């Protein structure tokens, strides 16, 4: 297409670019929940049409209620401000709860109800309706209920898990909220307390479930996992002892990440100040040495709090972790990359991203998007305030962004409980508890903020480069929201072209 034709089409479709809700100023961010009471324990999960579900507890006078909001791909609120009420509860304190979603973009939440005697689950559609009714459906039929989790499944259902005395209980609900596993599946080990850690979809209606086994407060705490099929049967020939070589830190319930082909990637730290990663295959085989591979081998520092990002294309694992001196008075941020065999790639001492100082670092969350691993974290600037920062690293450990670290939320406040998801175009979206509210911010693949409609190349200018990018990928079927798929329908076609042309010549802050 020649330049005159481009100009003519641009004139025909020209119009002002409307900015999305994601703020272009990291000193402002967006407020997702700011009710009169405190908004606590936010979580984030992928949503419909390249959007994001965000949930939290609303500490109104009668108790901590469960609420949820759907943000579209541009960060606009799809539902009413401060979200929709999922469960009206009477709790004066909180335990953990679960947020997940299914391939259709519906949200699932699992939470305690009725003074803790019940675990309930709710399904929320992208229009905010709740087909399982007000306050959801009951998942447990007897016993106690503590710290529920949930994992949406590829067949449109959800597996809900919770603590029940010394055991962990699991129940699958189908798309209509009907229990599929009778009175539930019990995960127990004689002589041990089994504490649920995480639940993740593993494809084909299966889930991988992880848990911590312990004999008591002073006893060793080990990490285990098993895959369950759609009937509730255990898939792997034997449960996998992901870590039984020492003891997890008390209160550490490690999360894991799916590898996209039915396996899981695990990261954890132990009570001695060493952290590890492990890859368990779809068949339940440990891909690395038993008890995982340590991020570093040196004895001079301690490593606590770890998160990971997985590159499905190469099998590489990127680990980010909080590193301290022996007294834990000096704190820094470090990283390590493991290849598909578990070999450390950034020397045996890892890569220092933030040198150790007296300023604390925490709330680590990472995602792998557009060939780089992104980490978002808090760093203290006073005893009670923090800022939110980020890095993006390529496979060599070099920064993908000119600003390193990048300021994501730059006005000091009390920030914690971050959550991060990645988008197909390389963007990451972060939410966090900000004082008593819930805030959010996007960071594009080139370290920009906010939204620039039609800007396929992410340089905050809509011009011939964006046109060429769309035309060079014309007709391709891609994961929804990939680079060039500006309207998030999974195909690069005239709708994406119109997005470029209707915003031709626009620049964004």
Task: Note down, in words, how this protein is organized.
The protein has 3 helices and 32 strands. The protein starts with a helix and ends in a 7-residue tail after the last helix. α1 crosses α3 and α2 packs antiparallel against α3. With 509 residues, it is mainly beta. It has helices spanning 3-13, 464-472, 494-502, and strands at 30-33, 39-46, 52-60, 63-71, 84-87, 98-101, 107-113, 118-124, 137-138, 146-152, 158-164, 167-173, 185-187, 193-203, 206-214, 221-228, 240-243, 256-258, 264-269, 275-280, 293-294, 302-311, 316-324, 331-338, 351-357, 361-369, 372-382, 385-393, 406-413, 415-422, 428-434, 437-443. The relative contact order is 0.11. It is 6% helix and 43% strand.
Summarize the structure.
It contains 3 helices and 32 strands. The protein is mainly β and 509 residues long.
Break the fold down into its secondary structure elements and pairings.
Blueprint: H1 3-13, E1 30-33, E2 39-46, E3 52-60, E4 63-71, E5 84-87, E6 98-101, E7 107-113, E8 118-124, E9 137-138, E10 146-152, E11 158-164, E12 167-173, E13 185-187, E14 193-203, E15 206-214, E16 221-228, E17 240-243, E18 256-258, E19 264-269, E20 275-280, E21 293-294, E22 302-311, E23 316-324, E24 331-338, E25 351-357, E26 361-369, E27 372-382, E28 385-393, E29 406-413, E30 415-422, E31 428-434, E32 437-443, H2 464-472, H3 494-502
Antiparallel strand pairs: 1-32, 2-3, 3-4, 4-5, 6-7, 7-8, 8-9, 10-11, 11-12, 12-13, 14-15, 15-16, 16-17, 18-19, 19-20, 20-21, 22-23, 23-24, 24-25, 26-27, 27-28, 28-29, 30-31, 31-32
Helix pairs in contact: 1-3, 2-3
